[in-house]
Amino acid sequence: MNDVSSVTHNSAGYGSTVGMQAGVVHNAHVSIGHQDASPQEKYKAGVRLLEDGVPSRARDLISDAIANGHDTAEVRFHWVLAMLSGRAYDDLSTEEIRRLNRASGLVRAYAEGEWKDTLRVAFELLEMLSIPDGETGRVLERLRALPPSRRDTILHHFDLVLTGGLKDSLWAERRERAEAARFGNHRVQRVWAYFEPDPIGPRALPPRPSTAAAAQAALPVRAGLFVVATAFLSILALIADPAAAAIELLVALGAGLTAAHFGHRWWFQELRLKTKNQVFQIPHPRDPASARDGFTNNVRHSFDHYFSTRVPHGLAPHEWLGLTVHFRNSLVAEIAVLYRESRTSVDRVNWLIRYLAEEARNRYSKGTLFDHHQSQSQSQSQSQNQAPAGAKVLCVVALVALGLTTLVLLGTVAAGAGVSQLLLAVLAVGGAVWSGRAAGFSWLEARGEDHRLAEETKEYQEQLAARQAAYQNWKSFLDATRPSELEMEIWLACDKTLFVDEALRHYQLTWRDVITHTILVTPARPYKRGRVKGGPWRYSRYSFRLFLVTQDGVREVSSEFDFTDAKRGNRQRSNYRFDALSSVQVTERSEAGYDLELFLTNGPARNIRVKDADAHQLAPDENAEEVAEINLDAAGFIHTFRLLEGIAADGKVWIERHNPKNQPSFRAVG
Known about the structure:
Radius of gyration: 39 Å
Strand order of the largest sheet: 2-5-6-7
Helix content: 55-70%
Oligomer: single chain
Number of strands: 10
Shape: elongated
Distance between the termini: 59 Å
Number of domains: 3
Largest sheet: 4 strands, antiparallel
Number of helices: 23
Strand content: 5-15%
Structural class: alpha+beta
């Protein structure tokens, strides 16, 4: 249940499996470039993806923009960031290193300005990979002279390629900035909105189609037969006894008009009651038919939740739930009818359920809750009181008077005429009763349908307008509250920085002691997850797993994080020699996701769930492989796997083979 005022709690013991909570995909304005986009548009889209933590797609778009002639110092700077973001030096292919070297030689050709200075500093930092730590002072001065935003951007994306001496010199400043930005922009109050699904649009039950046309078409024939039969009976009576027949006919006419006038009101009220009972009739929760309808049950649980938290003053929650049980049932049926679709989650309808619960509370406080939507039990016990009692009595009396007058007319015909005329009179009465009843129903249906349609149309328009206003209010609130991709990425980066800093402090290590490191960011169950279209999944709960590679072996630290408030759960630490890591393998299951397995010589295999399956939650125009690549890249999986795989294969020899200082350096910048 996603709600500002409610929290979903789940618990599980060690080794148990908790099903993930549904994820949401926001259709935010995130462009990932299209075939016909201009180089400038592709570059801008690439920069947004780089900022949002999707460097693999950013590399493709910015490279495409450069290949099509959009090449400036600013563009080349972001290209360098995209090439190195989330990657260590040994993650680069030989061709990528050559491309970086060629780009380094192009710096002198760009126009002078701040972007050229920034690009030059970026390449000078890469040159420092093969220079002793004591000779980095000059480039550090130039780095610190850059605007803070660009300096922080370089340090963030170059995290895995900077040498220990450089990082040591800058780490205290970076830690302080992470602490300052960690809860910036009201993170605690806003993160929940990222995982709130986009609300589905407002709907209301439309008026049923009118059947008045069919009734009006049948009315002339039935009324004509009634007039003929009544006229024939009247003529027979007038021939037998004109004076008595005239009085009896006047009484019959008055009784018929009275019954029609008051019967119309009675009939319409009964029809409306029957219609509402049919519309809101739903199976009991324990009925087999209801048990099979998961959406209806979810709607029912949601109504119960929101009604229990939106309680009128002076009532306990259980009292309010008991008082509104039938009213809620009618609303459950309405929402189930309106939104029962194969891909509709109740989370997208919760805004409407919450609004209806608040409306019910407010109407009860005003004493108007049961004015219109009568519950089924009230409908059954009060069905005789829906129409005014006087109208019912007058209608019944008029019908009785009409029947008695008809019998008197037959007596008049029998007294003043022969048996043959009496037989004709009886046939006329029979025809009048049948045709009159049929004509009456046609007339009542035609008038009632017009009345019903007008009333239901008005109710529908008012209800839809009120729900539209509630929908716009909730959507505007969500749009204003929901963090941007950049904010989510900044908060996550701050969490990772402080997590690494805590590990360094615990082991009393400096960056000079660390040969390399990697951090694997995976979901921690139970969680909520969300993403923008074209972006990586982001989770309400994470598991951070840090691997610090030193001369003595590998130090591994893991901890769970609640992303809303950055509170940490259980921490686990382990150390092992290079030769203790025997093998690493990846298991990919389309229906489950990606698993990373670590095999140690002195213990059981350790299974790490890197990502869950998401094919069923992709947009129709999204490619499953591209989305998987984006999420694995964002998790730091590719670098982590290569690092652990290399250590498992080479042991301690890996240190000399992959030490950045032993790698070819970049050419000097012109």
